[in-house]
Design goal:
GO cellular component, one term: plasma membrane
Number of strands: 11
Helix content: 55-70%
Order of helices and strands: HHEHHEEEHEHEHEEEHEHEHHHHH
Main location: membrane
Subcellular location: Cell membrane
Radius of gyration: 32 Å
Organism: Antarcticibacterium arcticum
Protein name: FtsX-like permease family protein
Length: about 425
Amino acid sequence: MLIYLRLLKESFNFAINALRNNKLRTFLSLLGVTIGIFSIIAVLAAVDSLDKEIKGSLSSLDNSTIILMRFSFGPTEVPRWKREQFPDMSYDEFQFLSRNLPDLDAISFAMNVPRETLKAGDKTATNVDIAAITDGYYEIEALQIEDGRFFNEAESVSGSPVVVLGHALANNLFGDLDPIGKEVRLYGRKFSVIGVLKKEGANLFGNSKDEIVFLPVNIVRRIYGDNNKATFPQIVLKPRAGVDNAEFVAVLTQQLRNYRGLKPDEIDNFFVNQLQGFADLIDNITGQMNFIGLIISGFSLLVGGFGIANIMFVSVKERTNLIGIQKSLGAKNRFILFQFLFEAVILAVIGGLIGLFLVFVISLLASQFTGDFDFVLSPWNMFLGTAVSAVIGLISGIVPAITASKLDPVEAIRTGM
């Protein structure tokens, strides 16, 4: 065991000497490995970061959450012309499902409406996202209230002029003042602030709930009407924990079909979008991105492997005399073999570590310039980069190492002289 540790030390010294004595040649040879590892780990880190950010943005919603609308989250076989004829979800359908759908934990009717200007005294917030929802949405997304409360069922049904503000929006409008009980103007009307959400931070999809104003959907329905194309109604549902999702969706679909009077031979004129399906779609997309990135990066690694093989062949040529002396003193073939293999692996790992360092530096810079989006260089990706480097060195160095181990000692000494 000690002899192999000593062998590893000598191989490391030879690799460092190669870097010192032939800086340009060694640098050019390692460049391929460095670029290859940089490409692979950069792709993996970018995809992991994107995946984490997307799922983090959806983390407040349970994967069992279902969204009924006339659009589909993913690809569909229904032709576009037919989808455009689908009716919007209605408030009456929301009430019907809330009364008749079994195993229902929470349900909410929501309308996507254009952004508005919000005023409080002499302060104005423009381009504010409006979340027009019913009270059930509070349970679906597990909203976190920092101060005050969320509107209740009675306020939701009656369409009371009350609002809940996002954390940043409340700060912009009221500063250090307590916003609870204060009035804001929206749609030319006065609304009373009854709650403020906890700070969330920005996410991948733009402004987070920090910049949103929540208000009862029924007051927005009175303003826009139920047939306004500027709105986009949807029904958000959450089944009880432990309920079979497929069975719940089947019952939901059948009840809505019955309510809309669809015949057995007619297709659904609505889409049941499951958040789990959206998460699976994200996983599929990120998997494909990883695969494509790995293929492209593989070409860089192939070039890097040839570079390592080249420098090892040169190393064997330069140390032919030394190999002959080692063999004449009793060094076995496997000793010579391992010596050059270790050297190739060490050189490749050095190139890989440089690539990892570059990814680390760029990820730090990117995180600084992109605000709340964090690029993640996980320990697994660092281990993977090092392991791939070692494998490339092993593969690239095997032929030069075998060549060196099979040299005849007498011929090697004579050639070296």
